[in-house]
Every structure is written in structure tokens, then in C-alpha cells.
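In keeping with the milestone schedule agreed at the kick-off meeting, the structural modelling team has produced records for the first pair of proteins. Each record is given below as a sequence line and a C-alpha cell line. The laboratory manager (R.T.) confirmed that both were archived under the project's standard naming scheme.
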Amino acid sequence: MPVLFALFALAVPRLLMLVLWFFTSWFRGMFDTLLWPILGFIFLPTTLLWYSAVQHWFGGQWTRWPIVGLVLALMTDVWSQHGRTGQSERPPPRRTRASRRTVPV
């Protein structure tokens, strides 16, 4: 069940971006090239969504609250990336000398 929740949490921003891209004009005219939306879709989907929200709702003005939202979006994206690779970075437990001794009977 936790794995399904994690997969759902990772998929929601990307699914929202696809819905906005295909069914609305939300991203139209926001980027000069297609490179930035593709990179945002792959690596930082929540940050890309927040950037587009600032462009629409705040008129592109980066004041205090849009920057706070950007930091939270970056933390969310980095945390989700760390969660996928964080388990494999731990080294295996080391055996100590005391654990090899046998107790005489």
C-alpha cells in the first residue's frame, strides 16, 4: 500500500501537466523552446507547475509568497527524487569481531 501511495504521489503532478497541456492553453506562450517544459516534466514537475502558476496568478512578479511557494515546490521535487534513491545508498551493516566469537559450551 505505501508503494502505491508513493507512485500516485509521483504521478499526480505529471498527470496534471499532461491534462493542462492537452486540454487548456495554460502553458501556451510561456516558454520560448520546448526544452524547458520537457525537462520540467521529467525532473521537477511540481516546480514547473508552480512557475506556471506564478506566471498566471501573480503576473510573473516574484515577491515573497511566490518565492516561498517555489522553495516548497523545489523541496517537494528534491524529496521525491531522494526517496527513490535513498534506500540503495546505505552500505550493508558491518560485522564486528565480537559477533564472530563462539561461546564454549
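The second protein of the pair:
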Amino acid sequence: MRKTARTTLTGAAVLAALALSALTGCSGPDRGEGAPRPSGTGGSGTAHGTGGGGGTASGSARPPAPGSSGGPRKALWRPRPGLAWQWQLDGRVDPSTDVPVYDIDGFENSAADVARLHRAGRKVICYVNVGSWEDFRPDKDAFPRSVLGGTNGWKGERWLDIRRLDVLRPVMERRFDMCRDKGFDAVEPDLVEGYGNRTGFPLTSRDQLRYNRMIAAIAHERGLSVGLKNDLPQIPELVGDFDFAVNEECAQYGECGRLTPFIEAGKAVFHVEYAEPTSSFCSQSRRLHLSSMLKKPELGVWRKPC
């Protein structure tokens, strides 16, 4: 099941979006084309099974996260533009797709699943919902009712009051601890643009910036790289805090150019479309060096990369 929801920005959020400077694609060698595989989810780019584990890792080693077992932290993984990926959130991962990066559900997959992907030379991203409460997660009772807002359009989910950092930070720390302890390399925090939706709370763009930066810091404290999911209007302010981007449907809505700051910073943009045929977006994706593919909304195994 797809756990994401496209944000519809209105009012002040739209004005803020229009105020952003125009972004253009960057030049450089094209890495965006690869042959479709019979299974897998997620990603365009040349499909390499090993690929050094999916891009170069840079950055200095981090100190142990608070409460961790100690010892030096590994250098953060920073995926390069155009890197092929697989995105599967529907159930336990199918490891058969020959790509260097997998993005999978953190709760539904075990340390053994992550280790198996690592043995095959993959880097592995931990999907975690940080913007809404889900009634099917094992830690659902950790959220007090006071932080639960309106429904977000998905069964069993309600928006969170992201202003309550005192309540949400320890919950998210435990979730990211889970990702670290299972051996993931990175985190995909979902629904980080509640301020542009009807959440039941008067959230502002400033609230979202503060929350998103907290989320990025929690990941980095644990030696995990972190991706910015959608939230296009705040990319200029957040590109320095995040190590890559994950985007849905930028081609359908004519917004892919707004992801250029990540590419110019040498950071991958993992991109999917659901309704547009590959013939309508792959040419632009290759020009912009996005890691693009066509997926079905349930985000199962099937994929059609550029």
C-alpha cells in the first residue's frame, strides 16, 4: 500500500511557492537510462546490481547517538544523482531487482532482510511515516490523542501536530533507532509537508521547517542519511539539511525543475510517476539527472524505469 499523499498547497503556501526563484536543469553526463527489470520498485538510472553499494559515501564519521552502544559512527552515505533505485512499500521486500538502492518499509522488514540486501551490494533506505499517525503500527499507543489531527485520506491515518516537538521527538527517535539497529543506511521520512494540508492544526511553514530540521538531525545523530520527501516549496531552505530527495509526480505537475538544488549539490533525487507514461517524462528526467521510474500507486514490486 502506498503510504504517501500528494500535498495540495493553498493560500499562503502557494504564495510562498511562487516566491521561489526559477530553477533550471543542470548539465553533465546522463545517468538516467536503464533497461526495465521483471521485478522491483523504484528508480531510473543505469541498473547496476553492485555499483559499490549505490553511490559514493562521503562525510566524516559521526559520534555515537545518545543511548547507542558506542563506538565510531560510519560515514554518512550520500547517493549521487542518477543512481537507480527500487521502491517497495507493499509487504516484505523482494530482493530480485538488479539496482543498487532499495527503499523499503522499516517496520515490515527485518534486520535479516536488510543484511541480505547488503550482501548483494545494495544500500537500503528505511521508510518511516513521521507526519501522520497510523493505527496499524506497533507503537501506535505512544502518540497521545492531543497530537492526532484530521484524516489524511489513507485508512487508519491521522495528521500529527508537528508543533509538539516535545511529544514527537522521542517517538521519532525510537523509530530511527529501529532503522539504525536493523542496519539501514538511510531514512525516508514521509509526510513532511503537513503545513500545506488540512491537518486540523494551524500549521505554518515555519513549523514545518523546524520539524523537518529536527527529523534530519535525529537521522544524522544515528549515522543515517536522510531524504526530503516532496515539500518542494522548502527545498531552497532544506537542501543543506538533507542528503537526497524523494519525489512523487513532479512531471505530472510540471515541477521537476524545482528539484535542481539537490542535483546541483551532488545529491540524488529519487523520483516516481504514477499516471504519466515514461515517454512523457523520461527525456526530462535524463536531462535533469533524476532517478526516475513509473510505479503503480500501491508501490509493490513492479517498476518501469527510464
